[in-house]
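Quick one: structure tokens for this chain, please?
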Amino acid sequence: MFDGTGAPVRDADLVIENGRILDVALGLDGDEVIDATGKTLLPGLFDCHTHVMFSHLDTLKELETPFSYKFFDAGKNLLATLRIGITTIRDAAGADLGVKRAVEDGLIPSPRMQISLNAISQTGGHGDTWMPCGGSLPLFGPYPGMPDGIVDGPQEMRRKVRELIRDGADVIKVCTTGGVLSAADDPRHAHFRMDELETLVAEAAAAGRWAMAHAQGTGGIKQAVRAGIRSIEHGVFLDQEAIDLMIERGSYLVPTLVAPRGVIAAAQAGVPMPEVWLRKAREVVDVHAQSFRKAVEAGVKIAMGTDSSVTPHGENLRELELMVECGMTPERALVATTRTAAELMGLLGELGTLEPGKTADVVVVDGDPFEFKTLAERIVAVYKNGLKVVGRDEIASGPGLDT
């Protein structure tokens, strides 16, 4: 068992009752026995940055897709994510309250979700879908329950945060820099002023919410941290001052190392995309890896996130390979995908580790749990709330556990 606390892998039995972990020790028994001899148990995994309503980077295909098709496509993406052991996700724009409620009511097999609805962006920012032709690419077009994300000034910011919370947002996402997949901005440029960001954080806090910041450039990262935003998404251009600020304020880094590589891979596979996207992706890959390495060495709190659908849903565990390539030990990478991710999302009291009293999200793995290149292929079973939601015949289970 790798219990997610940072303790070494050890032999143990796990007892589950009514969807919760009752005990963890050697020599335990139960009314029904699941024989996982020779396998390794992990806590349910997390992905703290996904976009389940989207599946590709083909802008023309996006324009040709009927609006309602996305909701059915999301079900496929959620199942692909669950099948590789990820039992909890934070959707970083796209999923609405209807998708989350369908998951909670058991209409579709899925990880549990926190949602942000839409990303808040300034005019001309990363969330502004304006294109040089004068039109907009409707990735996040507003509809009932999905507010438009463009705001300028503190008063508009205050209203927008309140609107997002009204419509079901668990976390408020804001773009404090430009990005790669947007036409009119530069990832290095800071977006929004401090009065706007402080208003966002204050309004979110008043409703018991945290904020997450798409933040790639150094200036926008520092502004987000100083404003009290809980997590920095991407963190491409980290300098020492930004790293020191994150440690001082207790900020989390969700690195999404796989994302720019996914843009490049899609282009190489023939997916049509604006040339500016590909150019920016190539520019950030190496500096992104260097920034992550510096953050790891300094002790910044890191939680796993992928930015799927920039890469295909179901390939999320590639991020763990990159985290190790860029300086993390395999053990720390798994902690970032379990305990630290649960802590970031405010769920550590229930999830993230295999300890008595917690919700029984358990992943059964064949072979070495630290061999991340093939980990997804070796997931034998996934339990969510104590019920087997994904499984192969290799695991013997008692009656009723396949419900």
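The longest strand covers residues 20-25.
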